[in-house]
Write the structure tokens for this entry.
Amino acid sequence: MCRFLLVQKELIIEYCSLISGAFFVIPNPTIIPNIFGNSLGLFDLLAAAPAIRIFRGLLLYDNTLSNHLFDLTLLIILSAIFLALGLFLYSRKHFKPE
């Protein structure tokens, strides 16, 4: 049973890496077309997608961090949301009143 859950977890991680654009660039359906000159896509709600765009811009295209302020801000906001959600779910599961 434990081995089956481990395989499922690895498949979920690989699928998220695939749709975030880590392996190759895929079309990103636009949710909000114009936020300060940038568009917010469906896969941008995964924290890996803006991080990959930042790394790709810095390492491959010789951009600076000032070129990626929208992605950096989105990454910080998503990280804070995921941290708060994780802390809430952890405290709800492990700190039950007896």
